[in-house]
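Reagents: none. Just compute today. Small ribosomal subunit protein bS16c.
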Amino acid sequence: MVKLRLKRCGRKQRAVYRIVAIDVRSRREGRDLRKVGFYDPIKNQTYLNVPAILYFLEKGAQPTGTVQDILKKAEVFKELGPNQTKFN
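Predicted 3D structure written out:
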């Protein structure tokens, strides 16, 4: 099973996160399938590769809680079909 989750980057006390598609059994810093976004909580900046995110969501990937909140704020779920909005 694939999840969309955050992968920590940056230095000490200045964390930034990559949003990655990763296998459930991998650890947080493990090898990802694909990088699909970027999130900086300090500057409150977000970059999302929406076509890649939609591809993984259509294939059955489950976003974690934090990633789901980021995607809701960016209104990514509105681009999914009405039969695939099980994340709202």
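The mean pLDDT is 88.
Action item: order primers for follow-up constructs.
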